[in-house]
């Protein structure tokens, strides 16, 4: 849409994540079958295979910085990802009119913008590892019903993907299996290995979501705070002005001070899918971390 290498790279990295997840899914489906047979060694082996792919996935996202300039993304590309729902700030107060559609041939429709949440990859991983996402009542700081926005995004997925997620919701058995083994024979060497590799897989997903928070901070929150640079239509950040590809080694925990700063910067900012960016992303990350069998790190 923009003819920039930055847009190409944004799509390439996003697609690479999807492709890399494929072998992990195959191993995780095999692990579900192995749980049914109570074959703990097969479960462990398949989780190791899945972990290899999940580790690759979480290392892919920081590569976004290689060829996608944050300023170009925010000021040139992102507007094309916005939908027609909740976009009054962009001048779309009444959605979009689809001529020749509907009873009056001029039906107005309201669609969410493009967002990674519409991918079935991470909802599937959440089911595999027993990660649950809930609505947060900010007035009481309590969680209740399933996250409505994540459920709404299902409507933007291909029908076979939705069917797959619905099936996983009924058949995923990994976390209950690990918990049952932990309760019945916690000293067993196999059980200890099972816990370790299960938590390692969950930690990879958690680290991916850490990296996603960093991406959103630099590509959206920081850019919005700075405002458009002069002559932004042809803007490129000079290489020497760019932050390094990562402030820390990939896999390390995000410094708490940086997260607090990002949260302050992101107050009220919405994603292209309509979510409150920082609360939504941090909530997903923390709920992922909580799925670990061994006491998760607290923030």
Automatic annotation (TrEMBL):
Region (Disordered): 240-282
A GO BP entry: L-tryptophan catabolic process to kynurenine
Pfam families, sorted: IDO (PF01231)
Superkingdom assignment: Eukaryota
Gene Ontology terms, MF aspect: heme binding; indoleamine 2,3-dioxygenase activity; metal ion binding
Protein family membership: Belongs to the indoleamine 2,3-dioxygenase family.
Name of this chain's protein: Indoleamine 2,3-dioxygenase
Gene Ontology cellular-component annotations: cytoplasm
Sequence positions that bind heme b: 212
Keywords, sorted A to Z: Heme, Iron, Metal-binding
Biased composition (Basic and acidic residues): 249-259
